[in-house]
Amino acid sequence: MSAPPSPPLLLASTSPQRRAILEQLRIPFEVVAPVYDEQPGGDPVEHAAGKARSIEPDDRPVLGVDTVVVCDGLRIGKPVDATDAERMLEWLSGRTHEVVSGLCLRARAWEELHSETTRVTFRSLTPRDLGHYVASGEWEGRAGGYAIQGFGANLVERVDGDYLNVVGLPAALLVRLLATRFAGTYGFG
């Protein structure tokens, strides 16, 4: 006799990257678009909490995540156009930046708020490198102007920390929380 299926997480996000990571980890989930007005420049933990709190938990826990890119103390958002993307990538060239994610996991009786930081170092990029990447269009809608899980992997020299955090979900942190709060329910702990 097999165990009953795990209750799906309610993912307060429409991000395809977050969905892909949950699928990779075989964590059941349902997407529920958050009703949250995200103001630029805010704290990723506060944004993650706002997204998760906009969904009422039932028997299923709610997961909210927000990610920002920070270099030399400055937050780097999503580029508005190709020129902005090239400017961002040129600034990141040869430097180390941080990808900081806020995570909120909540149920009816409790809420967990955490952050995870991964350091990413770009190789030195030539004008040709920049032009080629920007022409790919992959920068669109991406914090920092790149997608490490795609063609943007060629920009990166080193990753220190949770790679999946850079993709869009601090997976190691989530697995630890699920193992603690739901031991065995999702296959962890």
Describe this structure in words.
There is one protein chain. With 189 residues, the protein is an alpha/beta fold. It has one domain: Maf protein (Alpha-Beta Complex), CATH 3.90.950.10. The protein contains 6 helices and 7 strands; from the N terminus they run E-H-E-H-E-E-H-E-E-H-E-H-H. It has helices at 16-24, 44-53, 82-92, 127-136, 163-167, 171-181; strands at residues 9-11, 29-31, 62-71, 74-76, 96-106, 111-122, 156-160. Strands 1, 2, 3, 4, 5, 6 and 7 form a 7-stranded mixed sheet that branches. The protein starts with 8 loop residues before the first strand and ends in an 8-residue tail after the last helix.
Quick summary:
Helix content is 30%, strand content 25%. The protein is of the alpha/beta class and 189 residues long.
Q: Which properties best describe this structure?
A:
single chain; 189 residues; alpha/beta; Maf protein; seven-stranded mixed β-sheet; 7 strands; elongated
C-alpha end-to-end distance: 21 Å
The overall average pLDDT, rounded, is 94
Principal-axes geometry comes out as elongated
Q: What is the number of helical segments per DSSP (H or I, 4+ residues)? A: 6
pLDDT < 50 runs, ≥5 residues: none
